């Protein structure tokens, strides 16, 4: 199989990790940087990983400040926060060939459908990243645990391209699952994200501290049950056992600062539209009540208002 070219839009904790893996897997990967650009041009990109540290030297790193400067590619991996999705169409357009696969490595519900409409694409892929990874500083990523990706497609004609992407990930040392329905897979990821991202930001604490409080564990379980009901209202049935499995795994994982907590602490806008508002709207359309999820969302809106004002 001929090696494909990749573009990574958003070279942070997620995009930097998976992009660097693909680079070391023998793929040509082009990285978009913002504030880190000058640093990585001098120092390269470094990943401290519990699987073993690795890096891309400055003279081997294909770094850019604008997608207009980048070549057209076979695959675009978007790892920006969903708070930047209003810019996605203009960022991605210069990178597209007729058969380019765009994959959103983002959290939440609804982004694939929006982007497919904006760019008039026949298909858009989605990737759910089950990973504990943080950005320590410019061009410096700390990969704490996990790393598996679940891939899915919005638009059936893109499935062969998605299968080829999955193989490139596997060849680069990344565990991959491929789902037929990205919408169902996103609901499954939201089952964890909705309670733990939001509660960590409101409580200003990590996963280990939350799991040591029985009352917070019970609240997380209740929010998960509400997400399960909302998913069912959109024809996605999540297994009830998945809730206890996720809670058990969260209790076992290393203390983890969620992405939303880090965004709050660093004064960055919170990812509320795709992680909460869209799910609440879908549930409301089917008269499904999500009182505890909605209360959490309202508190996050208060926190977010102070950040963006």
Protein described:
With 309 residues, this protein is of the alpha/beta class. It folds into two domains: 176 residues, Rossmann fold; 125 residues, N-(1-d-carboxylethyl)-l-norvaline Dehydrogenase, domain 2 (Orthogonal Bundle), CATH 1.10.1040. Helix content is 46%, strand content 20%. Strands 1, 2, 3, 4, 5, 6, 7, 8, 9 and 10 form a ten-stranded mixed beta sheet that branches. β1, α1 and β2 form a beta-alpha-beta unit. The protein is globular and about 50 Å long. The termini are far apart.
List keywords for this structure.
Rossmann fold, 309 residues, alpha/beta, 12 helices, ten-stranded mixed sheet, globular, 2 domains
Distance between the termini: 50 Å
Helix content: 40-55%
**What overall geometry do the principal axes of the alpha carbons give?**
globular
Assign the CATH superfamily of the largest domain.
NAD(P)-binding Rossmann-like Domain
* Biggest pleated-sheet summary: 10 strands, mixed
- Identify the CATH class of the largest domain: Alpha Beta
**How many domains, as an integer?**
2
Q: Give the class from helix and strand content and strand pairing.
A: alpha/beta
Report the CATH topology name of the largest domain: Rossmann fold
User: What's the order of the H and E elements?
Assistant: EHEHEEEEHEHEEHEHHHHHHH
Rg from Cα: 19 Å
The percentage of residues in β strands lies in 15-25%
What is the CATH architecture descriptor of the largest domain?
3-Layer(aba) Sandwich
In total, how many beta strands?
Answer: 10
Poorly predicted parts: none
Contiguous helical run count: 12
Q: Average pLDDT value?
A: 95
InterPro entries: 6-PGluconate_DH-like_C_sf (IPR008927), 6PGD_dom2 (IPR013328), ApbA (IPR003710), KPA_reductase (IPR013752), KPR-Related (IPR051402), KPR_N (IPR013332), NAD(P)-bd_dom_sf (IPR036291)
Pathway: Cofactor biosynthesis; (R)-pantothenate biosynthesis; (R)-pantoate from 3-methyl-2-oxobutanoate: step 2/2
Keywords: NADP, Oxidoreductase, Pantothenate biosynthesis
Protein name: 2-dehydropantoate 2-reductase
